[in-house]
């Protein structure tokens, strides 16, 4: 089993996907979070259509049984002792005791037990024991440990965890390779001309300057991961607005920096030949012809929002930036104070694009399960009807949530109050492209 560690956004998930594709493995993703218990890694409780509760295997156990590749994404977030306590026997000996009382045996143990006679074999099968496939493998992805913070979650590689994996570090790309990668991605997205390559060169110069000054904690919010560099390069390939592309790459962080941090950032921008980022929204022009190309033909026009939009100058500038990011195939994060018109801007943009909308509002008790499925109580029907004879009245059924409906039908999902939800509830937006885990 392998542990792949590296900086955030350095391409760990992409590398794991390529690795699995080369070896012909099916991957099963498990997103790890701080409050995840040992039981959650193995099994969880579920409810059938008749209201009975039962144990259901986690993606990790399913991978062990079917011989798939389990990807533990973000193991650095797990509480100390959770990983070793839950998965130590499974990773070391391919043996595990599950919360429902059943056992998983390694292939060699299973073969030995099966050869002990029919009585042992029958008892083993009756107990629900199962065999771990010899092809089963685990790849864990995590951030680099931070030795400067002893006792904190950053220093997550302890003596126990270090015995479970073969560790591999994903180092930063050398500058020539990084430049070639960014230019290739930009040219694949759009035909990048010489001016675009010059803008990309300035972008990389700024990124290297910030990384060289990494010892300064004030510049940490301005560091660009490989994922952010590639996302910005796609914008630069089609737009002559380096400062605006950087502004969107920072995800509005630059606007909320302290004054002394902004001064340091502007100094590095000037040294890289980039004009200072404005603290207000920048305009990214989008021609009516481009807007026509982005318009969709909705299958359900009633889902296209219709709002009364007042053309305010600042709103129009933000709307242009949103449309520019949309045209680059990127997901949008709209940040602002309460009551400034974020929902109205989102609805008006979708109205211009004739795009169907699904709506989800998050809160502090939102879970990943509640984002993917919605419980529905079947209505009572007239006695004697076919539906009533099937006994479906009053039964709780599970239906696709708005998020899943949007993913299946190719609609846009508006996630409101995203800052209220816990980290694990936002797992659906992680990765490139975003992934949905257990339903």
TrEMBL record:
A GO-annotated cellular component: cytoplasm
Pfam hit, one: AAA_5
Species this chain originates from: Cladocopium goreaui
Protein name: von Willebrand factor A domain-containing protein 8
GO molecular function: ATP binding; ATP hydrolysis activity
InterPro entries in the record: ATPase_dyneun-rel_AAA, P-loop_NTPase, VWA8
ATPase dynein-related AAA domain: residues covered: 2-146, 331-425
